[in-house]
Structure formats: structure tokens, C-alpha cells
Amino acid sequence: MNPFEQYKSLLGQAAPLATRYLPGSEAIIAEWQTRVDAQKIHIMLFGAYNAGKSTLINALVGREVARHGDVPTTDTVDFHEWDGHVLLDTPGVNAPIEHEAISLAQLERADLIVFVLRQEDQDASDIMGRIFDLLEQKRPLFIVLNYEDGDPARIEAIQARFTHTLTTYAQRRGFDTASLAAVPTILMNVKSACRARLENKAVLLEHSRFDVFMLRFREWLVQYDSQKQLLQQMYAGLERSLLQPVSASIDREAPPQGDMQAVDAQIGHITREYRLLTNAASSKIRTELMLRRPTISDTIAQGGTSDAVLAALTQVGEAVSEIVQNWLQQELKHNVKGRIGAALAADGLEFPQGDDANGSEFGNKILDAALQGMKGVNKDHVKSLLEFGRKLKIPGLKGRWSKTLGSWANKAAPVIQVVAVLAEVGVEYYGEERDIQTKQDRALQRGQWIEEACSQLYSSLMQSVTDVIAHVQLEELQPVEARRDELRAKSGGLDQDRSDWAALTTAFQNVAF
């Protein structure tokens, strides 16, 4: 099932419990279901009530769609379509208290945040405090400093002053000042930009620095403009606006206690750690491929036969695969359980003990076989080993895993399969390159092809890694989930609700491409 369809299904399952414990959850769930259907990034304009948020939306859209003025005009959340995304115009902070509450509630559900502040507010402690609250929460943030000084020579001085202000507040808050460099901050005369867009005045548009803003803004959006990133942003919003509030509400009615709490915590820590491992593996593969981009570039620059390109790209893919395989083996066999154990110990809990009397040695063998499959192990050997484990009734290979044995085996040697296709594309590309007239076109096509090669190799390797991690996670979770089912059958209504909500939270966490 498509991940977004899984989200819709889970939201439907969550509704009865959520409405019982969280007032207003019907509207929250309805909004998320609509967003899942639309699959668009929600970009919230945030800041003081007259900082220029609505004016910036009008500049982006290119027509008057948002109300604006010197006094609070926005008392609801307004949604505006823009370039395949949704811009959220919200009441400002430091506005009437009921307006601010609307903004803060919507902030929990927003994917990305554009913080707009006026030049005269850059020293205001409440405004800076809100910026650093968002930074410390690791929310995706783009800052627009709306200046009104018409002298272009003053821009550099304004920028230097604001940089100093950010650094000063970072030091006060104990925030890593080096990470501030990654937060895009653009100075723009928002009012002039809006006027230039509405009246189509190119000189005024450049003078307002709208072109500088758009260049950096689009670069920033690219980081999040994919279905995978959108899914991650949606989960973060669901966690803030629905999953955590319902869980806290249940706990307020009756504090968690006993074995059921321990089992739910064990499942939560195991699921979280393996999700973090998957994310770390993704970063590891991307980093290794990035280091080999020059090699890939040299490979396609040399051209040659399909076999030559295939051999060169296979070396690249297998080199990355071997590095990732060794790293993943270390993580799975030695590090992950230690991190789960430490997290559980911090909660006063022990690592769950499963029934692995005859499965431990086999578990290592099947893990080794799965890891070797990343480099091209014989698929018949993998399948026979999987079937052997099923006959021994090894936990994780019994029942639900029987359907996946063949598909697991067929994923052997993914790197070879991918580079064979890339080799054909590469040879064809160099056949066509003779007809291209300009160096710019050749460089662009070569860059696009390198990007495609890295993307395909990444997808192939990541699929193998995800399969291995999913297998090990299943092995860890199966005995704990069995224990939860046993306890749930004996527990009261509130404990059952708490456990059911914990299971739903875990299900949301496990949704992925």
C-alpha cells in the first residue's frame, strides 16, 4: 500500500480513541486526511502581526490574495496555492491572544516555516526567543528580514547587525552558533517586492531583492520537495499535533504503570532506534556515493563499450556496498542493542528477552546472508537458508515471513542489475553527445546523467539495507508484541487504550517508502 494511503487508514483507526481523549481532534484528523490526499507541502508564514507575512504571500502569488494592513487583519488561517505547495497566512504573534492561539495551534501542523520579521524588531527579545524556540525544536526555518530602508548601501550594515544579533542570542541560549550558517536568512523589502510583482516593474523587483529571495527560497524548498521528505514532515506534524497530545491526555487520566507500560516502552524504543538506523544508513550511502561522484564522472567521460562502463560502475557500486555492509553489520550486531538498552535503562526498564534458544546462531547466519546479498550472493543459497530457518521455526521466519522468502532471494545482486541498465544509458548518451553543439549542453547532460547514476545506485542499495533492517527489527519486536497481546487481554479499559494508542504511534512511525 502507498505510504500516504497507509496514513489515511491509520488516521481512520486513530479517530475513535483521539476523539475520546483530545477535544477538537475531529478537525485535526480531517485536516490531516485532506493533506494526505493533496500531498502538498504546507509552508506557514509566521511572525509579528504586521511584519509583512500577507504582503509576502501576495508577492509570491503575484496578485492580491491575502489581506494586509498596519493593524491585525488575519484572524483565521488562510490557505493559498502556490507552485504546487500551500502557503498558510496566519494571525501574527503579539496580536490579540485568541489570534495568537490560532497561529500556535497551526504551527504544530505546518511542514515548513518562513519567519518574517521587521527591521525594527530584530532586537526584540520575544521575537528572537520564538526564532530560537523553533531552531531548538529543529523545525525547518527560513528567515526573511523585512527592511524598509531604501538605500542599497545600507543592506550590508543591516545584514551584519542581524547576524550579530542572531549570534548573541545563540550564545545566550547555548545554541550551536556554527549551525546558524545552515539557516537561510534573506533581507528583502517586502512591500516593494509586492508592488513590483503586481505592477510588473522589473527594476523595482531587483531593487527589493525579491530575485535574491526567490533563488535561495527555491534552493531551500528542494530539500523537502519529494514524497519521502513530505512523508517525514507529515509524520513530524502528526506527532506534534495528534500522537503526543492524545498520549499525554491518556496519561493525565491515569498515570501509566506496571508491565504494560514497560512493554509499550520497549516497543517504542526498539522502533525508534531502528528508524534512526535506517535514516543513518541513508545518509551513509549518500555520503559514500557523493565521495565517488568524480569516479562516476570519469567513467562516463571515458565512454567506451557497454561492458566497460558496466565494469567500472559495478566497481563503484560494490565498493559502496561493501563499506555500507561492514558499517551496517557493526551497527546491527554490536551497537543498536546497546543504544536500545541504554534508552530502556534510562526509563528504569530492561531489554526484552525473547525465546532464541536455537535461533541466536541462526539469526547471525541469516543476517550475514542478508548483508552478503547486498553484494551479490547466490539467490538460491539465500532462499534455501531462509527455508531452513523456517523449518526450524525460528521467530520472524514463521507465518508472515513465508510469503517474502522468494522476494528476498530475488533481490540478490541489486547493484549488478542497476548498473547494467546505467551502462546502456551511458553508452547511448555518448553516442548522442557527438551531435550536441555547445559545451554547456554537454556539461548539463553529463551532470544530469551522473545525478541519475547516483540516484539509481542509492535506491538499489537503500532497498537492500531497508530489507535487512526490517528483518532484524521484526526479530526484536515479535516476542515483545506477543507479550503485549498477552497483557492486553488481561488489562482494564484505560490500559488497553494506552496500549492501543502506543501501537498506533508505532504503526505511524513504521510507514515508509
TrEMBL record:
<keyword id="KW-0472">Membrane</keyword>
<dbReference type="GO" id="GO:0003924">
    <property type="term" value="F:GTPase activity"/>
</dbReference>
<protein>
    <submittedName>
        <fullName>50S ribosome-binding GTPase</fullName>
    </submittedName>
</protein>
<keyword id="KW-0378">Hydrolase</keyword>
<feature type="domain" description="G">
    <location>
        <begin position="43"/>
        <end position="146"/>
    </location>
</feature>
<keyword id="KW-0342">GTP-binding</keyword>
<dbReference type="GO" id="GO:0016020">
    <property type="term" value="C:membrane"/>
</dbReference>
<dbReference type="GO" id="GO:0005525">
    <property type="term" value="F:GTP binding"/>
</dbReference>
<keyword id="KW-0547">Nucleotide-binding</keyword>
<dbReference type="InterPro" id="IPR027417">
    <property type="entry name" value="P-loop_NTPase"/>
</dbReference>
<dbReference type="InterPro" id="IPR006073">
    <property type="entry name" value="GTP-bd"/>
</dbReference>
<dbReference type="InterPro" id="IPR027094">
    <property type="entry name" value="Mitofusin_fam"/>
</dbReference>
<dbReference type="Pfam" id="PF01926">
    <property type="entry name" value="MMR_HSR1"/>
</dbReference>
